Amino acid sequence: MTALRLPYLATAAVSGALFGAGLYVSQMVDPLKVLRFLDFSAIPTGGWDPSLAFVIVPAILVMFTAIRFGRRRPAPLFDTEFHEPEYNKIDRRLVGGAILFGIGWGMSGICPGPAISLIAFQPDGLWLFLAAMLAGSLAGGLILPSGHRRRLADATR
Amino acid sequence: MDSFTPLTATLGGLLIGLASAVLWLGNGRIAGISGIFGQLLPPAQTVVWRVVFLVALVGATALSAWVFPQIGVGGSEPALLATPPAAWGVPTPIWLIVAGLLTGFGTKIGNGCTSGHGVCGLARLSMRSLVAVLVFFAVAILTVTITGIV
Fold first, then answer.
1. B2 contacts in A (CB within 8 Å)?
2. Would the ipTM clear 0.90, i.e. be above it?
3. Is 70 exceeded by the pLDDT of residue A157?
4. CA-based, 20 to 30 A from B16: which of A62, B10, B89, B106?
């Protein structure tokens, strides 16, 4: 019952808290700011906001370092193994999913992290978006062929 | 360019990277929000840490906005969702529902979003994640261009 021990849950809490603080400090909680990044048509006029790139690059670099550090250890601190996604095929499901998510993201400027963190500020329409996001996720899980579900389950986080 | 905020963006990015590093080195889990959110229903035992993570995420967002309101939206400025382009004549609730459905469905079958594929996947040098990131960024940029939503 590793998953219910205090250090394990405390780690999840610390990680979630750092994540939430990061989303606010970077202002990625602001869907309109995210849309101003995605609006490449504003580059020639000087209205483009490149901030999102300044968020994701350092985030990747820190995580890259952590992954490298983790490779030298047999297991994480509070579990028996690293739950590394093993499924590595580039298939239609991956590309199709990315296309659909890209459309939704471009329509709203909201990806799942900010969607959750926005609960802190309760903007109009957020619960509608969250309910739809949950429904979409459940629907996606249902249409996954069962043979793949088990293998993919570990990668779906 | 007055909305460009490289300093807070970088600081926030470091915090998000640290969040992912803590969850990975502590619990061996990928901090991918769509996955954590999408697996809130059973199996029961692994739901607990996901709920804890998401509650802490919301709480820390609120707390940091309270401590540093001058950073902007959520603090000194109200948070607003995007509204559909007027020319499209689509009611805002319908627009948000469609966007939410696509986001939930797409991240589920594509196994990840900006955090899982974008931060963790690229950091793991995963080809799958690289493809996903290139596709959803390109499609999102195209969507914004076509809709003219900004």
1. none
2. yes
3. no
4. B106
